[in-house]
Amino acid sequence: MEQQDDRDKIFALVADLTNPEQRESALLELSKRREAFADLAPILWHSFGTIAALLQEIVSIYPLLSPPSLTAHASNRVCNALALLQCVASHPETRTLFLNAHIPLFLYPFLNTVSKTRPFEYLRLTSLGVIGALVKVDDSEVINFLLSTEIIPLCLRIMETGSELSKTVATFIVQKILLDDMGLSYICAIAERFYAVSTVLANMMQMLTEQPSARLLKHIVRCYLRLSENSRAREALRQCLPDSLRDATFSAALKDDVSTKRWLAQLLYNITTDANP
């Protein structure tokens, strides 16, 4: 009975999303409950007017992006809408529908912002979370979409200038693109693309020598290891892999991280031998 009451409550809140007066409180309530309700994504997707209402929330703050005038309140509100879209992006039943409707494109203007204020940082991080949810499941369709819509330059800029958390999610997205064969081929096909990625990774390694982050280091090492599996990239890495990965700079940071230590050893093996075809 209680379960039925919860379902009824969820349906009522979803219906409230299409009512401008009720929408803000419904966004907040649903974003809080999204983890607890497994079928929320299909309900959001298939209920009349709901996705349009969420997109309306997103589009309505575009004018606040430039010149940057996003308030904490407006950022929190749109991030609640983005949390619901992340839920749709994560669900196996709605992921492809979400992608085919090109909904991630609505988030790109948020990723393109550069203001360092907290509301903008939160907006970028939450938008990255939606893309991160898409790439979490290995799906070439997702990678193809992201490559064709030029997500990599947006991620690279955040990897250089974002907060530590934003950098970590952006690097994870690039890592997942690289782990797909199509993604690796795309990045290594043209020297400019490879150097755009490797230069940002090298800059991040320099930053990590001053501000260590084990989580970020893990993703960067995995990106380098994957690049070293491409013959052209491997040749280039022999020249441009940062010295801090070749020497003992990060020994202490990696002391208890068995998988990253193994990846680093494999990376160094790959670039110092001709064993790989």
What is the helical fraction, as a range of percent?
Answer: over 70%
| Rg of Cα set | 21 Å
Average pLDDT level: 95
Q: Using the alpha-carbon principal axes, give the shape.
A: elongated
**Uncertain ranges:** none
Along the chain, the helix and strand elements come as: HHHHHHHHHHHHHHHHH
**Gap between N and C termini:** 62 Å
Number of helices: 17
Q: Give the biggest sheet.
A: none
Q: What structural class do you assign from the helix and strand content?
A: mainly alpha
Estimated share of beta-strand residues? under 5%
Tell me the total number of β-strands: 0
Question: What would your notes on this structure say?
Answer:
The protein is mainly alpha-helical. The protein has helices at residues 2-16, 23-33, 40-46, 50-60, 72-90, 95-100, 108-111, 118-136, 140-148, 151-161, 164-179, 181-189, 191-210, 214-227, 231-240, 243-246, 258-272. 40% of the residues are buried.
What labels would you give this structure?
elongated, 277 residues, mainly alpha
